[in-house]
Amino acid sequence: MSPARQADPDLDRFIEEITVDCYNEDEQLTAFENAFYDADFPCPGTVIGEDVEVLSVSMSNRRQELIATCRRGGRRHELALLDITVQADPTTSRLLALIAAGSAIKAETAS
Q1: Which of 14, 22, 71, 75 is 20 to 30 Å from 7 at the Cα level?
Q2: Taking the complete model, does pTM exceed 0.90, yes or no?
Q3: Is residue 69 over pLDDT 50?
Q4: What is d(CA 35, CA 94) in angstroms, rounded to the nearest whole number?
Q5: Degrees (nearest 5) of the Cα angle 96, 104, 51?
Q6: DSSP 64-104
Q7: Residue 36 buriedness (CB in 10 A; 0-12 / 13-18 / 19+)
Q8: Please, are residues 67 and 78 in contact by the beta-carbon 8 Å criterion?
């Protein structure tokens, strides 16, 4: 395990709860997308120093990652969820931590 991700038994249990019936990465991604249905949107966020309103999180067929639909200045934008700093309620923050942890694990196994 890299120093970037320390063991967190609670986080690991939550990941297991979400992905318990998943057989591959596509199903895991869908499971995380479904977990965001319980999130409290809209919520504030920041992308490269600019304030946005995060409206929802979903999966994109074009990219194998979770996408946040954001609004800024009356326009909607789709951005990679991990590219946004989200100021969210505890449930949503926990889900975001899971996504970041899963991304760190993927990066570890790829190297």
Answers
A1: 22
A2: no
A3: yes
A4: 11
A5: 40
A6: SSEEEEEEETTEEEEEEGGGSEE---HHHHHHHHHHHHHHH
A7: buried
A8: yes
